[in-house]
Write a structure and sequence with these properties.
alpha+beta; Cytochrome p450; five-stranded mixed beta sheet; two-stranded antiparallel ribbon; 50% helix; binds protoporphyrin IX containing FE
Length: 388
């Protein structure tokens, strides 16, 4: 009897020799990928140098990738720019562990039970309220002056963290400050790097060197705290990098969108006065601020800090929607919406869509075993800082 036929790769634009589809990607890959979905369907494959990229862009495709085949499709690629290589990452990192191994499970459990459990977060509510009041006081003192909201928000989020000693509201910002350094690490990891697509041809050593130097400086800044707290250095750096800039950018975008949409801003104010009177709201009141919460969702929808999710990697070849996803393919997931570029919080008012990983059409934090472990913390920090 004939061996069973392997289904084909998902459809996609025809690759060029050698470069594959790299030239098709353009300057805004997430928009390009969304437009490919309109032409080729919910599952698209592209060749980037030596790598296969599979793009799943419908909720059905997301469910197949992040639920049905979650185990096989939840590996990671270690970006070329990282100073540590795959093997090392597997032992020290959560975000970049190639497989969901014992070390990864240990770190995830630590996050779930110690750092971001309901009880742990609840126990810090007073600290958070105090810190956001400090922010309001600081901002009141700056009336009439130019304030860089991004820096104030970043500093506040940092202060909300146990690492507050490192960065004070009026402390170091700008060039050389911790915001600047974290920004540079994220930039280095997020910059598309040809060496990721042609691993043999490691010509762009400069970027890797740069990220090594930045990391060394960050380690130097954190050493005393780590001594004091006995926290694993890498996990700490990782949580800070993953957690602070993402929440800060969501808050900053929400502010910008609300300032551009006076009607939405009025609704936020009216709801605030109705629910909290003239006082600043307590954290426990935030869940009653429905309109504020849908503004946060809309900001996450329109400006997701990780627009394509962190790429997953197929640990083995796997069949998805009658196509073959080959072993080692990278998987990403852009989001597609009606009237996508408009800030319209109302779209969430009439739906029960939430971002906790069960609604596959809206996954700003991902879903499945690799879902963002900081979600419970971000879900508290973002509306709290924004409303203040
Ligand atoms: C608005 C805020 C945030 C957004 C939108 C966000 C989004 C995401 C997304 C999309 C992923 C990838 C999920 C996947 O691969 O399927 C992720 C992973 C991750 N996030 Fe977040 N995140 C946010 C805040 C945070 C915070 C506050 C922390 C921690 C303090 C954090 C720590 C991490 C870590 C460690 C991972 C890697 C998890 C793994 O690979 O197992 N994030 N996040």
């Amino acid at each position: 009897s004939r061996p069973p036929k392997t289904p084909p790769l998902p459809p996609g634009p025809k690759p060029w020799p050698v470069v594959g589809n790299i030239l098709h990607m353009g300057k805004k890959p997430h928009l390009t990928l969304t437009s490919f979905a309109q032409t080729y369907g919910p599952l698209v494959s592209l060749r980037l140098g030596t790598q296969t990229l599979v793009v799943g862009s419908s909720s059905a495709a997301a469910m197949e990738i992040l639920k049905t085949h979650d185990r096989v499709l939840s590996g990671r690629w270690v970006p070329f720019v990282s100073p540590a290589k795959s093997l090392e990452m597997n032992h020290i990192s959560m975000s970049w562990s190639v497989e969901c191994n014992e070390n990864w499970k240990y770190l995830r459990t630590l996050c779930r039970t110690e750092l971001f459990s309901g009880a742990a977060l609840e126990s810090q509510a007073c600290l958070r309220e105090k810190k956001v009041k400090d922010m309001v006081k600081y901002l009141s003192g700056m009336e009439g002056k130019v304030v860089k909201i991004a820096e104030v928000v970043f500093a506040t989020l940092f202060n909300l963290d146990a690492l507050k000693r490192l960065y004070y509201l009026r402390g170091r910002g700008g060039d050389g400050g911790i915001k600047d350094r974290i920004g540079r690490i994220l930039e280095a990891y997020a910059t598309p790097n040809l060496s990721d697509f042609y691993p043999v041809n490691s010509t762009l050593q400069g970027l890797q060197k740069k990220s090594e130097v930045v990391l060394e400086r960050v380690y130097a800044m954190w050493e005393p705290i780590v001594e004091e707290r006995k926290v694993r250095l890498y996990a700490l750096q990782e949580l800070l990098t993953a957690g602070t800039d993402t929440s800060a950018s969501t808050i900053e975008w929400a502010m910008a969108e609300l300032m551009k949409s006076p009607e939405c801003m009025t609704k936020v104010h009216e709801e605030l006065v109705r629910e909290a009177g003239q006082d600043l709201p307590k954290e426990s009141q935030l869940s009653q601020l429905t309109y504020l919460q849908v503004c946060v969702k809309e900001s996450l929808r329109l400006h997701p800090p990780t627009p394509l999710m962190l790429p997953h990697r197929a640990l083995d070849s796997c069949q998805v929607m009658n196509y073959t996803v080959p072993k080692n393919a990278q998987l990403v997931r852009p989001m597609s919406w009606e009237d996508p570029l408009k800030f319209k919080p109302e779209r969430f008012l009439s739906s029960t869509l939430d971002f906790k990983g069960n609604d596959f059409e809206f996954l700003p934090f991902g879903a499945g075993r690799r879902i963002c472990p900081g979600l419970p913390m971000a879900a508290r920090h973002v509306p709290l800082v924004l409303v203040h």
